[in-house]
Predict the 3D structure of the following.
Amino acid sequence: MSEADHDLLVMTAICKTFPGVQALENVDFSLKRNEIHCLIGENGAGKSTLIKVLTGVDRQDSGTITLDGKEIHVRSPQHAQELGISTVYQEINLCMNLSIAENILLGREPHNKIGGIDLRKMNNEAAEVLTRLLGINIDVTQRLDTYTVAIQQMVAIARALDIASARILILDEPTSSLDAIETQQLFKVMRKLRDDGVGIIFITHFISQVFEISDRITVLRNGKLVGTFDTSSISRIELITKMIGRTLVEFDEMTKAKLTSGKQIESEPILKAEGLGRTNAISPFDLDLYRGEVVGLAGLLGSGRTEIASLLFGSDKPDTGSIMMNNKPVDDYSPLGSIKRGVALCPEDRKAAGILDDLTIRENIILAMQASKGWFKFLSLQEQYEVADKYIEMLNIVTPSPDQPVKNLSGGNQQKVILARWLATNPQVLILDEPTRGIDVGAKAEIQKLVLALANEGKACVFISSELEEVLRVSHRIDVLREREKVAEFKGDVDESTIMNAIAGSES
Amino acid sequence: MKKNRTSFTWRKVTESRLFFPLLALVIILLADLILIPGFFKFQIRGDNLYGSLIDIFRNGSTVALLAIGMTLVIATGGIDLSVGAVMAIAASVAALLMNPYVLGKELSPQLQALIRDPNFTWQPLWVVLLITLLVAILCGLWNGILVAYVRIQPMVATLILMIAGRGIAQLITNGVRIQIFYEPYAFIGQGWIILPFCLYLVAIIYALTWLFTRKTAVGMFIESVGINARSSFFSGISERKIKLLVYTFCGFCAGIAGLVASANIKTSDANNIGWSLELDAILAVVIGGTSMAGGRFSLLASIIGAMVMQAVTTSMYAIGVPAFALLAIKGVFVILVVMLYSKQVRGLFQKLAVDRKET
């Protein structure tokens, strides 16, 4: 009886500050035995920080964690494991070139009399662990990389559970690289574990999976707890509303700008994608882009927004379909080809695919423009300064000099430098993937205005954002994506709930 | 306080890429000044200038040539271990072209007599140079293809030629050390026009490389690939072409270094020419402050780095350190350099610079 009296895990009033950011603010979280508990929220909501606090990667500034009614202080990931808290990350942390048995028992191999590894015993033990814990039966002597990602994921789970008899299992986006059947396999294992008494924290961006598998849902937004809900008592729309939230900023001028630019739309599309698709990235889709129009791509993270951007820009090559640009078929699917055609992509991940942190602001701005000119038609220093100064002024980049390394700038200003890099190539089609992520409200509004101004000048824009409100504000037309498929298109005035319905995929 | 782009400040000096390599060079030369009497004495024989200092520069020229090519490779985040072996290949090719006696086992007395003539050559000098450098460029191209297109890690890819190269060099000369009697060729390594000819060669290659990287967009592209290949890819820069270019160019530089080295000893010695010089070249680049992770590079700083290496070696010999102890001393020196480059020491220098300004 006493076991049922308290929750397995209770986190109370957790606060965590990183330099400049309040990552968690008085967040409460609890987990019961026999429960699959989904933790959801957009990027930067604080999910990872909460998990890091729980697993001892980071220490909370204040707040308490109790496990089985006893307060615990998690010192390190190893300590977390000793306490029975195991984590399986999205990226599989296993050795692909070892057998499944070796992976499961790595570092704890059974030894024979002369000190070597007792292979037979190891294989038996590993097979037993897989059957007992997960109820799956596979050949444990085969190399891990001969199996599908789903099986690899399950091996990771088996290892995590077996090291210390885990009572809490954290699954951080385990399904992001799985297909539908593999996901079902994983869910089956999760249900078995739940019924065996393990508390599971499940992080995912796929809303349909949340409803399929979870018992309760906790929503975080901007480091704050929005609430914990019983899955059966909340609808998809309500959930997405809670995830995305609303910011109460009025942008009257922007709406006006949007109306005037709407008149200029021509009949001929400047870029026409037909049946464009790539296996495991995005199902084939059609998309027409017109001058003077902003097309918003709405959908949750992982729904295929970025994949569409990559295909249009040529940083990923399509398996099927084709692109017509100015009525001419495109044959060179590469970033350089796109830049020369007048297509620009401001990529999603600023750090990994955008800025070159040791180069100066000037060099960062002229880079793509120079790449399209080739190695030898080098812009003179004077031309470089002219271009850099022009965009520093136009985009209001705050810096003492264009010769500063770009890493000295704030995130918002870095984002503007990348925008400047693409504007400098004088694109006809501008694709912006999360151009406002992680930057403050003021800079966000500036960038949104800029997008509308650019459309007004006759550019075709594609605007991708996790913030639905932002997409609604700047777009003339909105394409909705769900689980790697384009599912709907809305023109003109639409309200948020219509789009949310489409994103959630609920019957309307 | 507003920052001024042009004004001279101590802070700017200590932040300059050339500051630390130059500081190291000055410290070593100052030590020489105190420890070794007559170290800075120059002699004039004929029109030419001689002296310990000039010896340092002359002996450092091969490593300086290698360091120029190596700088660009390291700036892309790579490494080229094969340059020493490519030097040996170049030396063998050049020697074979000038003195083909390994091709025929029994030389006719007339040909033998001809070869003993210091001005004999089988091919004119320009053909020798052209073919030798082409072979070196091919070696570099091979490395470049392995790294950029076959996608082998640079260290492994260039290790192949590092090991195989010396064997190839031996095969070319049939395992024989070919003597070089052709005087115009020897001039490359031993000639003087007031200063040693090889110093002019370093200056020319440096100037051309500087023009090629800094007066075109190539230098910026090399740095951008080294800093973040993915961002560069999105900006339309071909990482593969850039990598192919720098490895090929590195082979070319190694070829020239091979010419200088073989001309200097007037023989193709496939076992010893360029032996372990790849490591000296890498060290020179590191002393020059180019990060092994890739990114910003300075050619001049690398050349100064090469001279620092040579100054250490020459100074050690001059104060009587035996040759076998030299490597150990070099090791200690590397530790000192790495410490000099650490954040803490840099911060200390910058703090000193600030204090200086305030007082």
